[in-house]
Amino acid sequence: MTITGLTIQEIATELDIPYRTAQKRLQRSGIQPITTGVLYPPEALEAVRNVPGKGRPPKKNDTYPETKPQTFEAREPVPLYIVKDKETGEDVSQVPLDANVIFLDEELVEIPEIGLTAAGSPIDFEDMDPDPPMRLWAAGFIRGDRKNYRCVRVQGSSMTEADIQDGDRALLVRARTAENGEIMLVRDEDSSTLKRIRITEGPDGRAEVWMCWEDGSGQKVRLNGGHQIQARLVAIERKPRKR
Q1: Confidence class of residue 32 from pLDDT cuts 50, 70 and 90?
Q2: Are strands 169-174 and 220-222 parallel, antiparallel or unpaired?
Q3: Are residues 36 and 62 in the same domain?
């Protein structure tokens, strides 16, 4: 029997909206999938089209460090891209639709892996091994030139409240300016780290750029000339933990 339907990516492409927006609107529309969370009936396209959006945050000023202070707007979670465990064969197709998950229902592309986010292991986004290990990522995450993308392995627990865990892999796109509210790869002399960026107004009225921990500690460090912003977080890959 042939089942005809649309994937979330096809709906997003047809309506020219982001994948996560299409996913959220499907949830609000009440339309149910006709397979295990992958295909939706044709009428889902019109249903998603008619679901009102929730608006967008103001356009960011990307200048750094001379940027004007900005008020942080709440953002949707970074997509969590779950892969099937090849050793256990664990089925992830039954993950609830309201979970922060991107399903493997689209083309995959290879992205180079360039290192660890850890003390003592500074990452140079530009100076890459001529034959780096490659990881597969969903093509829908890639916008523009694939050469602008890298992935790294996360080490540590400083961003657990942002659902970034030790051992995750992070897909990154090249960036050179601080973006308020974004999680970005920041390098100093001897380490590289993923941290939330906050831009605030200092006592003298000038912008101050901070990298902030999200582990409940409230720790933050002001960026200075010794820090270099290298990339912005696009998505997280997590291998299902063995039971």
Answers
A1: confident
A2: unpaired
A3: no
Q: Which residues contact 127 (CB under 8 A, 6 or more apart)?
A: none
Residue 39 lies in a domain: yes
- What confidence tens digit (pLDDT) does each residue in 107-160 have? 788 999 998 887 666 787 777 777 889 988 888 888 889 999 999 999 988 998
Does 243 map to a domain? no
45 and 25 in a single domain? The answer is yes
Q: How far is CA 132 from the centre of its chain?
A: 22
Closest CA to 126 of 171, 170, 174: 174
User: Could you give phi then psi for residue 230, rounded to 5 degrees?
Assistant: -115, -30
The pLDDT of residue 33 is 74
**Which domain does 13 fall in, by range?**
1-56
The helix (H) or strand (E) run that includes residue 19 is helix 19-29
Yes or no: say if 172 and 185 are a contact pair by the CB < 8 Å rule: yes
The label of the residue with tokens 């920041």 reads 186
Structure tokens at 166: 């030790």
User: 72 is written with which tokens?
Assistant: 């942080």
Instruction: Count structural domains, the chain.
Output: 2
- Give the global pTM: 0.58
Q: Assess whether 52 and 19 both reside in one domain.
A: yes
Query: Residue 37 has which token pair?
Result: 């969370």
Quote the CA–CA distance of 80 and 150 in Å, as a whole number: 16
CATH number at residue 30: 1.10.1660
How many other β-carbons are positioned within 10 Å of the β-carbon of residue 196? Answer: 21
Task: Work out the pLDDT band at 65, boundaries 50, 70, 90.
Answer: very low
Answer yes or no: do 207 and 161 share one domain: yes
**CB 229 within 8 Å of CB 122:** no
Q: The tokens of 78 are what?
A: 């970074």
